[in-house]
Design a protein that fits this description.
Elements lengths: L1 H25 L3 E10 L12 E7 L2 E7 L3 H6 L8 E12 L2 E11 L4
Parallel strand pairs: 3-5
Antiparallel strand pairs: 1-2, 1-4, 2-3, 4-5
Length: 113
């Protein structure tokens, strides 16, 4: 029993180390996500000012990504300010507090899935 617990603990430590390394390596890499785009103020009523939000649904779980206010995000905002559209965002992602933030390099409306 002692050998089994030691082996299980060692496997868990190795798995955690591998997961940490994978997360660290993906930091700063450009990713592309698709989902529903809308305004955090006008559609979601979550913020005091307009901000683009991408909601991605995977395996029944919804994840919100808030787009950082840069030239790309600001230039696209009028297309989703008071409506919801399918969009694709190419960006880098980071976690700030309890929110996921995307710094967009490209945002475009996509065909309905």
């Amino acid at each position: 029993m002692k050998k089994f617990l030691t082996t299980t603990l060692a496997a868990a430590v190795i798995a955690c180390a591998l997961a940490f390394n994978a997360a660290a390596e993906s930091k700063g890499k450009t990713i592309t996500l698709s989902g529903k785009g809308c305004c955090a103020k006008c559609c979601l009523k979550e913020t005091e000012t307009c901000q683009n939000v991408l909601t991605v649904e995977k395996d029944g779980k919804k994840t919100k990504y808030y787009l950082v206010q840069n030239e790309v995000s600001k230039g696209f905002h009028s297309q989703i300010c008071e409506t919801v559209k399918n969009i694709t965002v190419t960006a880098t992602c980071k976690k700030v507090g309890d929110k996921l933030e995307l710094t967009a390099e490209k945002v475009e409306v996509t065909a309905k899935k």
